[in-house]
Design a protein that fits this description.
By secondary structure, this protein is mainly beta. It has one domain: Porin (Beta Barrel), CATH 2.40.160. The protein contains 3 helices and 20 strands. The strands form 2 sheets. The protein has an 18-stranded antiparallel barrel. Strand 16 and strand 17 form a beta hairpin. The longest helix has 16 residues. The radius of gyration is 22 Å and the shape is globular. The two termini are about 45 Å apart.
Length: about 425
């Protein structure tokens, strides 16, 4: 499957080079790249406060400055570049930016806030586009469906992006075909983190969606993740650096045509793939229903990340994980016994303020162990070019008092400027 995917990408690239149908031609290269080009600046200031049993409380005031450039087109070719800088405004980093940091304060490890300082290229892409096709090469943002499997982790200050070759085709009516070969994932922990900053890959992504049904959208996907760990990484990680490798095949149906009754159904099957040292099979299941009642949008959902008899749980290593299983981020890694998340959401808008409240009840897939409950609240309001947000998460676990799953509360105050 992986070789077939790579061959398909090469064939797509060749066909694009000989087919400029629909491309906008410009007289010269410089005119093409400058005409219609744009430069954007984004400044995101965030205060995060974490109180976590078993750890010293931590807070951070970080500023992310993002400069984005999008060129115009020259015979279908274009360039995208984006650079991020993340700075701790107080100059005193008293929090851990990834779980294995050894920072100790008052005799206990500091709580985790996943916003390391640093400067990096977020995107650096050369693209070629025709009427129904687009091919991109380089460092790029990839978000597929709801980002449950492949996402950009846009919530964190340092975004997750992908190095590789991607191809999108819309030649068939109502059909979108996306194929990509990924050779590196630039993770949120930054280049300075030797173990977690980059994941070298030999991974292939296929996502095909069809919107020709009046009732909704049907998507099928195959995500074949081969995480390539070098000897240094294997040694430091105890030989299990490839534990995120997996082959996942799934189908998703989303019906949003009737606001009075919207629903999503999804199922996926995952196995260990070529390089994962743990041999396992696990299922993913999702059922979510929602409706619109005036200003209010209530939703009820049930998500299962299954387990192979407690050997290993269904994993989604490149998802935008913060958007799922609660904002307290207690389940960024699926427990070996799997995870069942029964949740209720209630959204509403008053005077331009978008409000959201959520409740989660967590249990294991195997043995039905009580993993705790969580409340989430947020309020968002836009004034001109600035979007303000206040957000709060409270996770409680009275039965499994361990540092990894102990009571946790988090508060965020954020201002997002776009110029």
């Amino acid at each position: 499957m992986k070789k077939h995917t790579a061959h398909l990408l090469c064939a797509a690239a060749s066909s694009l080079l000989f087919s400029a149908q629909g491309a906008q031609a410009a007289p010269t290269l410089s005119e093409g790249l400058t005409t219609g080009s744009s430069i954007k600046v984004n400044i995101r200031t965030r205060y995060e406060d974490v109180s976590w049993d078993g750890f010293t409380d931590a807070d951070a005031l970080t500023i992310r400055a993002r400069l984005s450039y999008q060129s115009g087109a020259w015979n279908g070719f274009a360039v995208t570049a984006e650079m991020d800088n993340v700075t701790n405004a107080t100059g005193d980093v008293d929090y851990r930016t990834w779980p294995a940091d050894t920072l100790v304060i008052d005799g206990k490890p500091a709580a985790q806030i996943f916003d390391p300082q640093g400067t990096d290229f977020n995107q650096a892409v050369v693209s070629y586009t025709t009427f129904n096709n687009a091919i991109k090469y380089g460092r790029q943002r990839i978000v597929l469906d709801n980002a449950r499997f492949i996402g950009n982790v846009g919530w964190r200050q340092n975004e997750q992006t992908y190095d590789g070759l991607s191809f999108t085709n819309k030649s068939i009516r109502y059909t979108n075909i996306f194929v990509a070969h990924i050779n590196n994932v630039n993770r949120i922990f930054g280049d300075a983190n030797v173990l977690q900053g980059d994941y070298k890959q030999d991974s292939n992504l296929v996502n095909v969606s069809y919107t020709g049904f009046e009732a909704g959208k049907l998507t099928g996907y195959a995500y074949l993740i081969d995480n390539l760990a070098d000897n240094y990484l294997k040694k430091l990680a105890g030989g299990n650096a490839n534990a995120i490798s997996n082959d996942t095949y799934g189908v998703r149906w989303s019906s949003t045509s009737n606001p009075a009754f919207m629903y999503t159904l999804e199922y996926a099957k995952q196995s260990n793939g070529d390089k994962n040292p743990i041999k396992y099979d696990a299922d993913y299941k999702l059922v979510e229903v929602s409706t619109t009642l005036g200003r209010f949008v209530p939703a009820l959902g049930y998500e299962v990340l299954g387990s192979d008899n407690g050997k290993k749980g269904f994993i989604t290593p490149f998802a935008t994980l913060h958007a799922f299983n609660g904002w307290a981020d207690r389940f960024l890694a699926t427990p070996a016994n799997g995870l069942k998340d029964m949740y209720v959401n209630l959204g509403a808008t008053f005077s331009g303020v978008a409000l959201m409240a959520s409740y989660h009840d967590y249990k294991s897939d195997v043995k039905s162990i009580d993993y705790g409950t969580e409340w989430n609240f947020s309020a968002t309001k836009k004034f001109g070019a600035v979007t303000y947000m206040a957000k709060y998460a409270m996770f409680e676990n009275d039965k499994l008092v361990t540092p990894a799953k102990s009571d946790t509360s988090k508060l965020w105050l954020q201002a997002d400027w776009n110029f």
